[in-house]
Amino acid sequence: MDAAAPLDIDPLLDDPKTRIVVCCGSGGVGKTTTAAALGLRAAERGRKVVVLTIDPARRLAQSMGIDSLDNTPRRVKGVDGDGELHAMMLDMKRTFDEIVEAHADPERARAILSNPFYQSLSAGFAGTQEYMAMEKLGQLRARDAWDLIIVDTPPSRSALDFLDAPKRLGSFLDGKFIRLLMAPAKMGGRAGMKFLNVGMSMMTGTLGKLLGGQLLRDVQTFVAAMDTMFGGFRTRADATYRLLQAPGTAFLVVAAPERDALREAAYFVERLAADSMPLAGLVLNRVHGSGASRLSAERALAAAEHLEEGPGEGPGEGPGESPGEHPPGENPSGENLVDGRIVDQGPGKAEDRGTGGSSPEAPSALSPTGPEDEDGGPEDQDGVSVDRLTAGLLRLHAERMQVLAREQRTRDRFTALHPEVPVAEVAALPGDVHDLAGLRAIGERLAAQEEQAGAL
After folding, report:
1. Which of 82, 227, 264, 373 places its Cα 20 to 30 Å from the Cα of 285?
2. 455, 341, 350, 318: which is closest to 394 by C-alpha?
3. pTM for the full model?
């Protein structure tokens, strides 16, 4: 199967027409790290960048050398080149408060902000975080203070929540329950009270029992105060949605080479296409590789079993082979096996292996005169058989090769479904990224796809 076309990151980041990059995907796939690495690389290539993260773990602040992030963009120090990098973390409640303060007169704003139902809604209503991320993106773009805005979408249950948030909020604001609660305030005066007492007596009585009378009154007060702002919410949500569809926006779907993550990525790719949103490609994080990929899992396991069983098989014997199939000491697959063993691992091959030979006082742990295990094989200074150690390493290698094969099958399934999607692969790192150097390394890996394709 042909490999997917490599995703060319640098032209995307360098293009002055690219104003927004949205990193989306399911939780735990490295969206925050990817967004930060892209922001740093774009800044060091001369652009003025702000990275908006919604990650509550604050890893972005730590990796950028900032004590903490909040709802205000903060400049990152230590960036090379002529560009600038700013970072911020969405404060959902503060963003909601800013909307209220900007679109309501002071008296009404105070009434809304002090309302208990509003305080609960702004802190944890389902979909509020995703909607506020859209609001903040619209605010940043309207300020026109940055060449490039990179958005790390919320760690939602589903990657689609970010796109669905405006629609869900609009459905909530247009719902029958909200309209009923708004009706008394709209009618006003005695007519409103009469409507409330007669037309809503049964409903409010039932809700009062379920929710409590005070909560119901808080909701009604909140709805009455917010009535004039509801249209503004919908208008801004629609405007931000159109902004995401504009040519200056690019979506990067981030995933790990795992079945569930790539399934979610496939759904997102299909949804972006259905909504006419510009997809730049797929970033595949934590891809495993091996510098000894020529030694297959099957051959490694066969060699491990031979070492664990001890001598007895003929030269080069393995699964599906017979003695004499190729001369001793030669391996048609190019693998480092001689007589069924790893080169220089058999008894009698231990002297002069980089240690200057064995001394009479301390015999080499691998020499024939050293201690032997119960099977007669040489042992190291800790009493571990060299053959057993080698067999264990071979089994570890076999496990790694099985992981590589599984990841490749998963990638192939995604590519078969979406051959048009360019892919950038980022090799798995031995540890977490915790500073600018680590983010810079991720950016370099993202940008060097042709070289990595030959190495993985």
Report:
1. 82
2. 341
3. 0.72
